[in-house]
Fold:
Amino acid sequence: MVGWLVADTRAALIIASATYTDPALTKLRAPVRDAVAMAEVLADPRVGGFEVTQVINRPEREIRRALATFLSNRSVDDVVLVYLSCHGVLDQWGQLYFAAFDTVKDELASTAVESRWLRERMEQTRARRQVLILDCCNSGAFANTKGDTDLDLGHRFATSGRGRILLTASRDSEYSYEGRPLTRRPRPAGSIFTTGLVEGLRTGDADRDRDGLITVEDAYIYAATYVRIHGGAQNPQQWTYGTEDAIYLARNPNNRPPAAPDKPSSPANNAHVTDDTASNQQITADSPPIPTSSSSKMVGRRKLLIGATAATVGTVGLSAAAIISPLVWDRDRNFTPLTSIGEPLIGHTGGVLSVAFSPDGQTLATGSTDRIVRLWSVANRQQIGEPLTGHTSSIFSVAFSPDGSLLASGSDDKTVRLWSVANRQQIDEPLTGHTSSVSWVAFSPDGHTLATSSYDTTVRLWSVANRQQIDEPLTGHTNGVLSVAFSPDGSLLASGSDDKTVRLWSVANRQQIDEPLTGHTNTVFSVAFSPDGRTLATGSDDENIRLWDPASRQPIDEPFTGHTGCVYSVAFSPDGSLLASGSLDKSVKLWKVSR
Structure:
């Protein structure tokens, strides 16, 4: 396990520029903090095992010299990592420059480090394993040349070496955010992207397959998910070129194989209710907490699906045991520990962000950061046909129509797509209108209407028959809308938002009903109606779960407390007697609900 650290020379160059002599380049808060944190975790012999060199707030000439020296003194078996955190500035032709302490914004060619120059230095180094991490504005433009709109990264990063991996905090023309409280969550100490990278390495949570090693892809998926969870407006990117094998970035310092729970002598030995007199009761287990993941739903009376991976908005949060394949779990009514049914469903190459069962329970749909939807046979746990392709970015939500004939998918590419389940083909053109990521999709109980929520602060209703938007968007939320749910009779629609409120809408007249439901003190990530429609459950970043009476729009009793992290998902059992909640505290909790 440790040979990969001992046999290789692992060298990292950390460059950060936070202060500038040119008033046109504002002082940055994050780069120095980011550089120190990144250097510490990479240099830690228990984690990265790199030889680390730092260049902080230095003139352009010194940065060039440091880069040239670092990359020239390498051997073919070295693993080299270059990290830059600074202002990234595009000139009038779209060429990216990295700003230094003495950079003059109007004289980039002579006072800043040109991205083309850095690419050339990396082409000339002998090291066959290269990692470049850019956390700066416009970092996605690194592969661009004058005026190009097609990045053509495969051509521009072609290399005779073993491989190169580029991670950027944003796409071309986007900004890399310094942990600004876009969702009023606690502000990360550094930039959101680098904070996510460092946390994933430091805690070992980026180790998706729990093999004790963290690849560059593992770290990227964790960091990209961290950005999404913490409200970052940028879209981190990863490009891989010429790699034959995975490049290992770190060792998991906390790697412990998951212990199999002891078989209980009786259900009573392993599950109990915390308060015998309470009407709404938490059911706990003496076995270790169940790792959470992208979505948690009670299906039928015995199956609970936990789509394990990095999390997305509106779903169960980032798991310490995150992997890139879904697992199906069996849970009997006596609440014995969950045990997986068979092997994980393997096929996705990125994090699985959403899962959904077909109404008959025979088919499972999964959506992933690899931009692909896959259908699986629940009976034999095999993929059904070819994957559904068309989305150009991560897929955040999938949902079957009530009759199971259609599948809807919502994506970070701002579109919604409808698919025929029978022939696995997209139906007509994508549904467009949202101006930001689509966070959730939900069919009405009669299957005639599709509701979608988005970070653009709106909810939209669509006619499934003609695939057209129905009237104007539902507006009122003042921040991104993260989840929507229809009431069982289809007359109401509930939405949860980053503005800390829940809103109820009349589906018939598409108007908000009375005032928002208030009480949560942070983002509302998940909403769910009970099967009889008499109760609405909401989960929030304030670590609480609240129950509401949709008729009176009043809270029911006190909130459920017990989670120690953001509650990303809530779901009722089919008979409405239980509520499941999934949280960033790496647990799934079951609550008795009585009305």
Remarks:
- The CA atoms of residues 128 and 162 lie 4 Å apart.
- Residues 30-43 form the longest helix (14 residues).
- The mean pLDDT is 78.
